[in-house]
């Protein structure tokens, strides 16, 4: 056992909120953008308590299934004002919200992937981010054929990645440990 105290390089710790968030981070698109919707949820720890100092980062394709990345084989996307990236710290209730557009299907190994949003969770005490996905409940056929979603054998575990529809968007609560723990991917 080490007698040395933990240093900033060993934990996300209290330094998380200094450099990662920015004022328009929760807005992958501007408010008022046609088709914009909210992705919301609450981050919970293993005891079921809200995590009030986590950071949620989303990365996604545009509505045509294209990424803002030079390696996208279909060419650059042409959707002004859509960033494809959102970043939101959780608030005093452990909640987050990202304003974005619903992504389209994305080609992948083994076939098209259903429309989804990649989510990274950063937090105090976590040495590394954890990565999960949000899938859309109305995309039943695409979800049933998605090779990544189908790589999860347990139907109850798969269900932790499917959001619930809300009036102005979707909700995906994230449970870091314990009962109903969200599925995280080893990337």
Please characterize this protein's 3D structure.
The chain is mainly beta and about 190 residues long. It has a single domain (about 10-175), classed as Aromatic compound dioxygenase (Protocatechuate 3,4-Dioxygenase, subunit A). It is about 10% helix and about 30% strand. Strands 1, 4, 9, 10 and 11 form a 5-stranded mixed β-sheet that branches. Strands 3-2-7-8 form a 4-stranded antiparallel β-sheet, with no helix packed on it. Strand 5 and strand 6 form a beta hairpin. The protein is globular, with a radius of gyration of 17 Å. Its EC number is 1.13.11.3. This is Protocatechuate 3,4-dioxygenase alpha subunit. GO terms for molecular function: protocatechuate 3,4-dioxygenase activity.
Task: Report a brief summary of the structure.
This protein is mainly beta.
Notable features of this structure?
mainly beta; Protocatechuate 3,4-Dioxygenase, subunit A; Intradiol_dOase_C; five-stranded mixed β-sheet; Protocatechuate 3,4-dioxygenase alpha subunit; EC 1.13.11.3; four-stranded antiparallel β-sheet; oxidoreductase; 11 strands
Topology, element by element:
Blueprint: H1 16-19, E1 37-44, E2 54-60, E3 85-89, E4 95-100, E5 106-108, E6 111-113, E7 116-123, E8 130-135, H2 140-145, H3 155-159, E9 164-166, E10 169-171, E11 174-175
Q: What fold name goes in the CATH topology slot?
A: Protocatechuate 3,4-Dioxygenase, subunit A
First and last CA, distance: 29 Å
As a percent range, the share of strand residues is: 25-35%
Form type: globular
Low-confidence stretches: 6-10
Give the overall pLDDT as a whole number. 88
What characterizes the major β-sheet?
5 strands, mixed
What name goes with the CATH superfamily?
Answer: Aromatic compound dioxygenase
Number of domains: 1
- H/E order of the elements? HEEEEEEEEHHEEE
Specify Rg, calculated over alpha carbons: 17 Å
| Number of DSSP strand runs | 11
- Classify the oligomer: single chain
Can you count the helices? 3
Helix amount? under 10%
What is the C-level CATH assignment?
Mainly Beta
Structural class call reads mainly beta
The CATH architecture name reads: Sandwich
